[in-house]
Amino acid sequence: MKEQVLTRFKELFGDEGDIRVYFAPGRVNLIGEHTDYNGGHVFPCALTIGTYGVARKRADKKLRFYSMNFEQLGVLESSIEGLKPEKEADWTNYPKGVIWAFGEKGMQVDTGLDLLLFGNIPNGSGLSSSASVEVLTGYILKDLFGFGVTNQDLALIGQFSENKFNGVNCGIMDQFAIAMGKAEHAIFLDTATLKYEYAPVRLKDAKIVISCSNKKRGLGDSKYNERRAECEEALAELQKVVDIKSLGELSEEQFEEYKGAIGSEVRMRRAKHAVYENQRTLKAVEALKENDVETFGKLMNASHVSLRDDYEVTGIELDTLVEEAWKVDGVIGSRMTGAGFGGCTVSIVKDEAVEHFIEAVGSAYEKKIGYSADFYVVEIGDGPSRLA
Ligand code: ADP
Ligand code: MG
């Protein structure tokens, strides 16, 4: 892959000077969904698939960007001066946002850049290609301009730029999982405090399979904001009877004791998901530490049921992928992952069942939904790096 992106870069931008190649992963969240803005825990891992970047510093103030995933747009040119989000700038708003964010944090990028990207994860499908591009850009700026930032800083800068430059109200999970990724480990992250711990993912004779629904999120963004608002309202109602700062502080028992304070049945279900999903995440990490993959899988299944019935963020495409997965022998657990409404599911599948899984779930999906799903058998990888 390195050779392919380097060759394309040289064709477009010439082969002189100090040209460097980088990689930042995508991520998948194993459990802990819609908990990150409720002060709860998440358990994502970085993948060995993600985004490649080729970059070279320029002597002038120009930015020249090209993505092999958006070839029809050609080379998009702009300047490091007066950076602001523009509709015509399309995907380049992501790397530009990061350059802008460095400036906001007192790290001025003073010369331009030639940058080529190639992602081998699907875009807009919940594997966080946007955060991958952000963390990649941050890592490139750090390396080319010598900024003294840690990988955790890169996560925060990436989130800041996505929130403030791209206007997407995302939590910290995606950028954190990508910037802090560690091969063969998932990251047990407390989103309230950013305390984290690496937990080895020892699946023995099983693989992580991502099923991509190819359903675009559509209404997803407005529903995402609606869920956030519902949880905030439920929290405010609970705060009248119990002293908490977030839903993530409640145990299941406490929730059952105080839930009467929530004024609507819908908000009660939303809050229930946030509380129970957080507790499931704690239990799932414990189970994994004890090599109890079966229990981990059952908690994944329960997570999906809760996201489907109480949080209502699944939809027929994700439900079909998961419900068909549950029917396959050798599936240890399966659930939707990411914000929902479209995007991907994540399943843990015994090695010998993977081929049949893809066949069976794929054909049932196509029959019911009318178009096909894509499958990725993935490995857990490291955070961003410069490729030698
Ligand atoms: P997700 O993060 O779940 O993949 P988003 O909608 O948040 O979905 O981000 C997708 C957007 O990120 C793309 O539409 C594009 O603007 C940008 N992007 C991601 N990967 C690339 C890439 N390889 N090249 C150019 N832009 C990319
Ligand atoms: Mg994204």
UniProtKB/TrEMBL annotation:
Entry GO MF terms: galactokinase activity
PROSITE patterns in the cross-refs: GALACTOKINASE, GHMP_KINASES_ATP
One Pfam family of this chain: GHMP_kinases_C
Residue span(s) of domain GHMP kinase N-terminal: 93-182
Gene3D superfamilies tied to this protein: 3.30.230.10, GHMP kinase, C-terminal domain
Domain Galactokinase N-terminal: 8-57
Signal peptide: none
Active site residues of this protein: 174
Pathway: Carbohydrate metabolism; galactose metabolism
Localization, UniProt: Cytoplasm
Keyword Nuclease set for record: no
Site residues (Transition state stabilizer), renumbered to this chain: 27
GHMP kinase C-terminal domain ranges (all copies): 284-366
Reaction(s) this enzyme catalyzes, per UniProt: alpha-D-galactose + ATP = alpha-D-galactose 1-phosphate + ADP + H(+)
NCBIfam families, alphabetized: gal_kin, PRK05322.1
The protein's name in its UniProt record: Galactokinase
